[in-house]
């Protein structure tokens, strides 16, 4: 795609993908690259602006990540965030030292001078700080434009050179005017046109798929998740009747998910093969309680089943994968530090006999994938469905996996999700967990010794942090009564009120 581009140079900050998403939400294309990318390669990418991310290091450390020394001489507008602002200062002759007082969390910022960055924002505003170092001497031709009680040089700039630095994080929801600040940099400093949209992406990718595949055949492992579902719909639109989708039912799906997938794609111009492999998966998982081992077993068995099915269709020349941008970032590339491996990142499997890999979603974030699904006419319920872990309910059943426990969780989880939606409770993600804890209860005149079910619902803007959703007690009581009354095997329901951190969103 040939769009105006904001280049994000990564110095190890946890918010790099969030910065990229925020830029795209402003209808400007963004790309993440390593912080030490050479000035020559930066120039070749032809960005209209550059954003330097935060990072865990101190800029004055000997082994601290550093940019190409020529970066600030390219004449391209640059916004440095936190560590990036300190790099800008140090690289241009200023001074950064360890502060006597660290500054973490939300603080009051006072705008002390006119700045294009703060146009349309009040002189007093709340911002998210996360640093233990301070800019103590400004580079030549720089000025301070905002301060906090702890940080004198919270914002610095050299407008003649189009260099701007902010000690806080405008990309996060906790900075109340962060979007406006980013917009001011992108449109008023970088002069963006806002030429990036999902509609344009769809048109461009349809043509790109046709150019790559021609009249060849494509095979896709349709997991039931949003990414593979949107990819299937995109392929059906671009190359109708040239796509075969294999849906492996491992018995770890939520209630009615297989039927929903079959219905959603019944009118699409593709072939859908559903394979019931639940017995195989349950046999492999028998007696396994460790969540990491569960993941490895499920991943390996899925690949095994897919290989067997793919071998039945020897006319497919291309393999399609629902790889998205965060998969690439997290798996580690030349432009990112590895966080965790993803099964669909790493190239084309050599022993499957395909001549090409089709990955049209690899530049998109999850919210963009959902928007693309709506553009392609997929059902809202499928596109907006709750995030679901790759191992499915196997990591929401604590302890050993059995068919009975899966059936119990499926029914309870369906009731919880239905009641939460019926009560119009706004929550980013919500699900049930079948714990391995059993306790004494009483139903009618009889004693029970059944499982405890945990309910989890969180609100989050980026899934990096989350707060528990405050569900009214009346709604929780109704959910508990329905589950204990309708689902055999559960006699106690609890609600998880732990934020992330210290907890994660999923239990395993």
What are its keywords?
single chain, 508 residues, alpha/beta, nine-stranded mixed β-sheet, five-stranded parallel β-sheet, 18 strands, 24% strand, globular
Walk me through the structure.
About 3% of the residues have low confidence. Helices cover 31% and strands 24% of the residues. β11, α7 and β12 form a beta-alpha-beta unit. The chain is an alpha/beta fold. The radius of gyration is 26 Å and the shape is globular.
Look at the structure and give the mean pLDDT: 89
Structural class: alpha/beta
Largest sheet: 9 strands, mixed
Strand order of the largest sheet: 2-1-3-4-9-8-7-5-6
Radius of gyration: 26 Å
Unreliable sequence segments: 332-348
Distance between the termini: 39 Å
- Helix percent reads 25-40%
DSSP helical segment count: 14
Beta-strand content estimate: 15-25%
Number of strands: 18
Shape: globular
SSE layout and pairing:
Layout: E1 5-10, H1 16-25, E2 29-34, H2 39-45, E3 49-52, E4 78-81, H3 83-91, E5 95-111, E6 124-137, E7 143-147, E8 155-158, E9 163-166, H4 178-189, H5 198-213, E10 218-221, H6 226-238, E11 243-249, H7 257-264, E12 271-276, H8 278-285, H9 291-311, E13 318-320, H10 325-331, E14 356-358, H11 366-375, H12 380-383, H13 403-422, E15 429-443, E16 446-459, E17 467-468, H14 473-486, E18 490-495
Parallel strand pairs: 1-2, 1-3, 3-4, 4-9, 10-11, 10-13, 11-12, 13-14, 16-18
Antiparallel strand pairs: 5-6, 5-7, 7-8, 8-9, 15-16, 16-17
């Amino acid at each position: 795609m040939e769009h105006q581009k904001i280049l994000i140079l990564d110095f190890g900050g946890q918010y790099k993908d969030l910065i990229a998403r925020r830029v795209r939400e402003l209808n400007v294309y963004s790309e993440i690259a390593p912080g030490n990318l050479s000035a020559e390669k930066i120039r070749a990418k032809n960005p209209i602006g550059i954003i330097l991310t935060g990072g865990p290091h101190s800029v004055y450390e000997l082994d601290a990540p550093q940019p190409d020394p020529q970066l600030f001489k390219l004449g391209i507008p640059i916004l440095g965030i936190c560590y990036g602002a300190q790099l800008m200062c140090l690289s241009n002759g200023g001074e950064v030292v360890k502060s006597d007082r660290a500054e973490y969390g939300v603080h009051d910022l006072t705008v002390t001078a006119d700045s294009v960055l703060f146009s349309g924002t009040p002189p007093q505003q709340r911002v998210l700080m996360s640093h233990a170092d301070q800019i103590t001497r400004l580079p030549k031709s720089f000025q301070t434009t905002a301060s906090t009680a702890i940080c004198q040089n919270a914002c610095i700039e050299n407008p003649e050179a189009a260099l701007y630095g902010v000690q806080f994080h405008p990309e996060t929801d906790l900075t109340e005017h962060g979007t406006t600040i980013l917009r001011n940099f992108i449109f008023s400093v970088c002069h963006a046109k806002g030429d990036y949209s999902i509609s344009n992406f769809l048109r461009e990718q349809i043509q790109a798929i046709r150019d790559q595949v021609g009249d060849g055949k494509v095979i896709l492992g349709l997991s039931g998740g949003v990414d593979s579902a949107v990819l299937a719909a995109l392929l059906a639109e671009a190359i109708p009747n040239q796509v075969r989708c294999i849906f492996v039912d491992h018995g770890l799906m939520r209630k009615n998910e297989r039927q929903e997938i079959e219905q959603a794609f019944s009118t699409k111009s593709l072939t859908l093969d559903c394979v019931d492999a639940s017995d195989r998966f349950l046999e492999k998982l028998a007696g396994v309680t460790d969540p990491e081992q569960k993941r490895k077993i499920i991943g390996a068995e899925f690949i095994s089943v897919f290989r067997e099915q793919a071998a039945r269709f020897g006319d497919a020349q291309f393999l399609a994968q629902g790889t998205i941008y965060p998969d690439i970032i997290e798996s580690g590339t030349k432009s990112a530090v590895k966080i965790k491996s993803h099964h669909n990142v790493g190239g084309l499997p050599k022993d499957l006999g395909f001549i090409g890999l089709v990955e049209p979603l690899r530049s998109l974030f999850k919210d963009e994938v959902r928007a693309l699904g709506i553009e392609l006419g997929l059902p809202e319920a499928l596109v907006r469905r709750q995030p679901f872990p790759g191992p499915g309910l196997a990591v929401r059943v604590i302890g050993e996996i059995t068919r009975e426990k899966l059936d119990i969780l499926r029914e309870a989880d369906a009731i919880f999700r239905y009641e939460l939606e019926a009560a119009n409770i706004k929550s980013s993600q919500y699900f049930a967990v079948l714990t391995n804890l059993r306790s004494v209860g009483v139903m009618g005149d009889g004693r029970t010794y059944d499982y405890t079910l945990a309910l989890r619902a969180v609100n989050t803007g980026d899934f990096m942090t989350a707060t528990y959703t405050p569900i009214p007690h009346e709604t929780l009581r109704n959910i508990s009564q329905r589950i204990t009354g309708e689902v055999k095997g559960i006699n106690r329901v609890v609600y998880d009120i732990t934020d992330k951190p210290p907890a994660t969103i999923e239990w395993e």
